[in-house]
Amino acid sequence: MAVAIHRLPHSKGRLAIIAGAGTLPHHVAEAARFQGEDPFIIALSREADTDWTGFDHAVCAIGDFAAISRTFETEGIDRVVLSGAVRRRPEWRDIRPTLKTLAKVPRVFRTLISGGDDAVLRMVIELIEASGAHVIGAHEVVPGLLADTGPLGAHVPTDEDRRDIEAGIAAANALGALDVGQGAVAVGGRVVALEGAEGTDAMLARVADLRKDGRISIRRRGVLVKLCKPQQDERADLPSIGPSTVAGAHAAGLAGIAVEAGRALVLDRARLVEEADRGGLFVLGIERDCRRDRR
Predict the structure, then answer these.
(1) I want to staple 101 with a disulfide (CB 3.0 to 4.6 A). Which of 23, 97, 106, 247 is the partner?
(2) Are β-strands 190-194 and 240-241 bridged in parallel, bridged antiparallel, or unpaired?
(3) DSSP state, residue 185
């Protein structure tokens, strides 16, 4: 699929991808290369889990802004995509500021100690842009990954599933406003799990355990809902689902997954749809107010 790469006016610089864990960074890198870019990969140590052979790349610690800034300068970087999961936030002792960001260090420490994930990401974007690069969203490079409105596969939600979607939306909105997580699981109209620092896959494993222990009804299936946080900067950490999400939802006995259309990423879409269809799960792109999506 041909996609348009976001370029600055008169930009002659190179695109960098700061890569965490998962498959998303590789999707972004391949799409950029398809469009004639020569992306430079900055793989985060202890986070990135992709083999970057075949791409120019360097490995940097997550808080080493000095090394990252030097890489921007030596490689002529003027655009940056933040892509992939980051499972731990840096400790204060990991922070290596540049002269341009030195004055911001006290606020950096406060944000790392007490800020939520979105606050930390906004701070990271600010520090990167203080180094002279422009941060763009992964969806600006690979717009085809964004979820469309409506069903992605063969299955569609029932009326009971719709009620669970509504309950999940209310919970995910409240959770996101607190800058805690993006996902919620509702079963029988009742919210049974909220996503925290453990991530979606671990939350789904917890739901599966609750089901086995009899804490959740085995007669009602339920739905996973994932939404952007209301205050989220869309240049980083858009909600995403992939085949592992489908596998986790199936193991948890859920009927399906609902994600925010236009503001959530669907990874390995063909495989995801195939596995959802095989497992009898729906995958649905929804508006934030799901009443607009009734069919």
Answers:
(1) 97
(2) unpaired
(3) E
